[in-house]
Automatic annotation (TrEMBL), chain A:
<protein>
    <submittedName>
        <fullName>Purine-binding chemotaxis protein CheW</fullName>
    </submittedName>
</protein>
<dbReference type="Pfam" id="PF01584">
    <property type="entry name" value="CheW"/>
</dbReference>
<dbReference type="InterPro" id="IPR036061">
    <property type="entry name" value="CheW-like_dom_sf"/>
</dbReference>
<feature type="domain" description="CheW-like">
    <location>
        <begin position="11"/>
        <end position="155"/>
    </location>
</feature>
<dbReference type="InterPro" id="IPR002545">
    <property type="entry name" value="CheW-lke_dom"/>
</dbReference>
<dbReference type="InterPro" id="IPR039315">
    <property type="entry name" value="CheW"/>
</dbReference>
UniProtKB/TrEMBL annotation, chain B:
<dbReference type="InterPro" id="IPR008207">
    <property type="entry name" value="Sig_transdc_His_kin_Hpt_dom"/>
</dbReference>
<dbReference type="InterPro" id="IPR004105">
    <property type="entry name" value="CheA-like_dim"/>
</dbReference>
<dbReference type="InterPro" id="IPR002545">
    <property type="entry name" value="CheW-lke_dom"/>
</dbReference>
<feature type="domain" description="HPt">
    <location>
        <begin position="1"/>
        <end position="100"/>
    </location>
</feature>
<dbReference type="Pfam" id="PF01627">
    <property type="entry name" value="Hpt"/>
</dbReference>
<feature type="domain" description="CheW-like">
    <location>
        <begin position="539"/>
        <end position="671"/>
    </location>
</feature>
<dbReference type="InterPro" id="IPR004358">
    <property type="entry name" value="Sig_transdc_His_kin-like_C"/>
</dbReference>
<keyword id="KW-0145">Chemotaxis</keyword>
<dbReference type="InterPro" id="IPR005467">
    <property type="entry name" value="His_kinase_dom"/>
</dbReference>
Length: 172, 673
């Protein structure tokens, strides 16, 4: 063990990205690749944040509009829009999906100790999805807990609430 | 080493299964051929075990083998329930596979006990082991010729006698035909000339090929009037590989025509004798018969299938490119590639298909054991065991079919006393029939038992709150209730079935692979379960349609008929019914159903009538693009609630089209209403 590798293991990399005008980050080891937005095939009757499916080199990849997922307005794809391809381990099964974000920024390297538990991140975001906070140039960036954010159960939950909403609006 | 260990485990289990199946067959038909089969399997097993120094396994197998040897020599005919005993030994062998060192004291005890038992048996045999060598010889002869026959090559002797004058070198079609035949395999053509030296008197043609006599005769069908043809099959193997055949042919040139045939048959007869002499040296006939197949791991085949699917998709893209920019040279190339890919696809598909026979050993055993454990006698009949299914299906179907069989034995078949009271044969019959029908494979499992009691099913369903008292249910609706979770009408819970965690799982498993299961039953006569699964999971023939800006794919199997109609004829209809060919058919308009409204509605649209499980349904689309070979891909867990999407496929331009499941579409619609 030379000291060089020691320092790198202590470092953790994060990919920062933008949803609308807010900055978030996720652990880089979850990211498979970042791609541009191809033609999207929407799936009818799916919850609003389930944008549809895309063709990733012959693989059908589900696509999530991360903005809608966090209650922000839907992303209108432009030049900056990117899809982060993520592998998620769920019940011993790997699910690959694309998370559409407004803009991908950079990879930040932080020491383990620099990740703070979120003290009070107001009630703007559901705290359950937050893994921690990192500080970059005096700005605080929220690190998302990917496993929780995009779990299938979570998707189902969203769907149920959506349905309730639509049912409620129908009864009106 | 672990890797080899795994290899032996796989191979060993397979051999044990073969042996088990053979013994089960032997139990019902005392045919020595089954014993031969079991013997061969065990012999292979023994070899493997010794290679990996699993002495306990090898020795035990060897002992069973010697008992089998005794049986096939007809030396153990007086032993009662011999098959039962042998099956017990095989079970022990299977147990030993997991504990070859006899670490478990109980296993060791059992081992010692069984070894003693077998030794007693084999001593009986060794007393009289050398008595009947004659039967061995004939068995070997049959086995050997059978093995040759597997390659399906036969040797034929043809005489062709022209009825008109044909000169050698003339362009008569007979020369083309002779050339064609010669291409079929090893051959020798001997022309005989008339006295003028150029007109053909006759040809003697010897050819070894896979063709049948009919194939050969068909070659000549257009010149029937011009030549006289005689085809003799002289051997059911390739004589050209045999010693002395070439020499014989040279001799035959000088033999008078009439004697040729008898000379040939004499020669073949003498060959057969030498064959037996040869094979007596090796104690395992058919040992080499497997050399024509190799063992490939299933994961490799999966990868191959994926790659082929990718190729099919790429090919669609290529084809689209060439159609937008026609270039004759490029077009030709693309057509070639398409043809090759199709061949490749077919071959790759064939590799993933396995005969359903693979499962039968397990089933036979299950039926036998089950029946014995609850004191019923059951005859298990299997037809169509060569029907081939996708490997994935075979794996998935195994559990559901086992469950159904268990149910048949436990609930369906009555006890022998009850049966004879009803005037039925005391031995119940369960039959399993597998057959192709269109793009589906049907597996029917039927018993001749008491049938389903609709009343008790209904009572039970009421009790469980699955139905209301006022519900009017058709018979098939009542049968459907069996598939509800937690449903079981068995009065007593036995260890065979009746925990009520079965039929719903059966149905789910089958539906997971896009299959269906249905029941028909007649009180007192029996019950029949029909499982229907598509032939293959990965590539389907489909109809590509368009609604608004989206493409959808409908499996061609369900499509019945297509109509063109004015779009505005749909709009004023409040109950969504369409009259087509004087029939009222409910319709689903994909535009309104899926809220697709980016482009204005077209003037004309297409109604595609599809066959659903319970009814016909018209699906309204803007446009039918055409037939399409769809490589099915799953749309991932995230969309499992959009059940009407059974998958997705990638189109030539790289975009994704959804595969619609009409049944689920209807289901979802009726659920909401």
């Amino acid at each position: 063990m030379n000291p060089e590798t020691d320092t790198t293991t202590a470092l953790k990399s994060f990919l920062s990205f933008k949803l609308a005008d807010k900055t978030f980050a996720l652990e880089v080891e979850k990211v498979i690749e970042i791609i541009e937005v191809p033609k999207i095939t929407s799936i009818p009757k799916a919850p609003a944040h389930m944008k549809g499916v895309i063709n990733l080199r012959g693989q059908v990849l589900p696509l999530i509009d991360t903005c809608v997922k966090f209650g922000l307005p839907e992303i209108e794809p432009d030049l900056n829009t990117c899809i982060i391809v993520i592998d998620l381990l769920l019940k011993e099964k790997t699910i690959r999906f694309g998370a559409m974000v407004s803009q991908v920024l950079e990879v930040l390297e932080k020491e383990e100790g620099q990740i703070h538990a979120s003290p009070s991140i107001e009630a703007n975001y559901n705290l359950e999805f937050v893994k921690g906070i990192i500080k970059e140039n005096e700005d605080f960036i929220v690190v998302l807990d990917i496993d929780k954010t995009f779990s299938v159960e979570e998707v189902k939950l969203m769907k149920d609430t959506n349905e309730k909403k639509t049912k409620a609006s129908k009864t009106k | 080493m672990a890797q080899y260990d795994q290899m032996f485990r796989e191979e060993g289990n397979e051999q044990l299964e073969i042996a088990e199946q053979a013994l089960l067959s032997y139990e019902s038909h005392a045919d020595i051929g089954y014993i031969e089969e079991a013997f061969r399997a065990l012999h292979t097993f023994k070899g493997g075990a010794h290679i990996f120094a699993l002495t306990n396994l090898g020795d035990f197998a060897h002992m069973i083998e010697s008992v089998l040897d005794g049986i096939r020599h007809g030396l153990l005919t007086d032993e009662p329930r011999i098959a039962d005993k042998l099956l017990k030994y095989l079970d022990h062998l299977k147990k030993l596979m997991n504990d070859p060192e006899l670490k478990d004291s109980q296993t060791q005890l059992k081992n010692n006990q069984l070894v003693k038992e077998i030794k007693a048996l084999s001593s009986k045999i060794s007393d009289a082991i050398k008595k009947s060598d004659q039967s061995k010889e004939t068995a070997l002869l049959e086995a050997f010729i059978e093995q040759e026959d597997e390659e399906n090559i036969s040797t034929y002797y043809l005489t062709i006698q022209p009825l008109i004058d044909i000169e050698s070198g003339s362009g008569h079609p007979v020369f083309g035909i002779l050339e064609d035949i010669q291409e079929m395999g090893n051959h020798k053509l001997v022309p005989a000339y008339k006295t003028d030296g150029s007109t053909i008197e006759r040809w003697d043609l010897y050819v070894a090929s896979q063709a049948t006599r009919e194939d050969l005769e068909a070659q000549f069908m257009f010149i029937e009037d011009e030549v006289e043809l005689a085809v003799h099959k002289i051997a059911n193997f390739n004589l050209f590989n045999e010693l002395g055949f070439e020499e014989l042919l040279k001799v035959l040139d000088k033999t008078p025509t009439e004697q040729k045939l008898s000379e040939l048959t004499d020669y073949v007869g003498s060959l057969k004798e030498t064959m037996v002499a040869d094979s007596e040296d090796s104690d395992a006939p058919g040992k080499d018969s497997k050399s024509s197949s190799i063992r490939v791991s299933t994961s490799k085949i999966d990868v191959l299938m994926n790659l082929v699917s990718e190729l099919v998709t790429d090919q669609a893209g290529l084809k689209m490119m060439v159609s937008t920019d026609p270039d004759p040279q490029f077009e030709g190339l693309v057509e070639n590639i398409e043809r090759h890919i199709r061949q490749l696809r077919d071959i790759a598909f064939e590799m993933t298909l396995v005969p359903i026979d693979r499962l039968m050993g397990k089933f036979r055993r299950l039926v036998r054991d089950c029946a014995i454990s609850i004191n019923k006698e059951v005859n298990f009949k299997v037809t169509g065991e060569n029907t081939e299914l996708d490997k994935i299906y075979i794996d998935t179907l195994s559990d559901p079919i086992m469950h159904i069989l268990r149910n048949c034995i436990d609930h369906g078949i009555e006890s022998p006393e009850e049966r004879s009271k009803k005037g039925k044969p005391a031995i119940g019959t369960i039959s399993l029939d597998a057959y192709y029908s269109g793009a589906y494979v049907h597996i029917e499992i039927s018993d001749d038992g008491r049938g389903l009691n609709t009343q008790s099913i209904q009572n039970k369903a009421l009790e469980l709150g699955l139905i209301n008292e006022n519900d009017k249910l058709s018979t098939s609706d009542i049968y459907e209730l069996i598939f509800q979770p937690g449903f079981s009408t068995a009065k007593n819970v036995t260890n065979v079935s009746g925990r009520g965690v079965g039929m719903d799982v059966v149905k789910k498993n089958i539906e997971d692979i896009h299959g269906e299961i249905s029941i028909s039953s007649e009180a007192g006569k029996g019950t029949k379960f029909t499982i229907k699964v598509p032939l293959t999971l990965s590539i389907i023939d489909a109809l590509l349609v368009k609604a608004d800006h989206s493409h959808f794919v409908l499996p061609l199997q369900v499509v019945h008929k297509c109509y063109e109609l004015r779009y505005d004829s749909l709009t004023d209809d409040f109950n969504n019914l369409l009259v087509l060919d004087d029939k009222q058919i409910p319709f689903i308009d994909l535009r309104s159903e899926f809220s697709l409204e980016k482009t204005p509605v077209p003037e004309y649209c297409n109604a595609i009538v599809v066959k659903c499980r319970k009814m016909e349904l018209a699906i309204i689309t803007d446009e039918i693009i055409g037939e399409y070979q769809a490589v099915l891909k799953s749309v991932s867990e995230y969309y499992k609630h959009q059940e009407f999407v059974s998958g997705a496929t990638i189109l030539g331009d790289g975009s994704v089209a959804l595969v619609l499941d009409a049944d689920k579409l209807v289901e979802q619609k009726t659920k909401l209403a």
